[in-house]
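Appendix B. Raw example, untouched.
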Amino acid sequence: MAQLITILVLVFSAWWLYRRFVSDARRLAEKSRRAEKERQTGAIGTLVKDPVTGEYRLKQDEE
């Protein structure tokens, strides 16, 4: 029984680490694409529209 619990904990941990790795990779790829697009167009940043106020602001890195 202890072996089963250990295996389940290891499998869950591996799955969680894989999911975290994939999400970080996607986030970094998007950041890289955005930076490349900004470099090509000569832009200083990317504007996003706030759905509540309707105002535009610079997109932050953590978004």
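End of appendix B.
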